Amino acid sequence: MKNTGAVIVIEDDVDDQELLTEVFRELDYPNEILFFADGEAALGYLNKVEILPY
């Protein structure tokens, strides 16, 4: 399995997004982190791109 795709996070709270960003940074996680406010926005993104998320 290829694990180089972006990590999709569905979270509408900006404070929680910042916390998660810091956690991934401290873990030295190499993948891009993409935040979406709701599942519909995430699904819209996933339907448009050909890259598989991690």
Architecture overview:
This is Response regulator. InterPro entries: CheY-like_superfamily. The chain has 54 residues and is of the alpha+beta class. The chain has one domain (7-48). It is 43% helix and 15% strand. The chain has 2 helices and 2 strands; from the N terminus they run E-H-E-H. Strands 1-2 form a two-stranded parallel ribbon. Strand 1 (7-10), helix 1 and strand 2 (33-36) form a beta-alpha-beta unit. The mean pLDDT is 91.
Keywords:
CheY-like_superfamily, about 15% strand, single chain, Response regulator, about 55 residues, 2 helices, flat, alpha+beta
Task: Give the topology, please.
Elements (H helix, E strand, L loop, with lengths): L6 E4 L3 H13 L6 E4 L2 H10 L6
Parallel strand pairs: 1-2
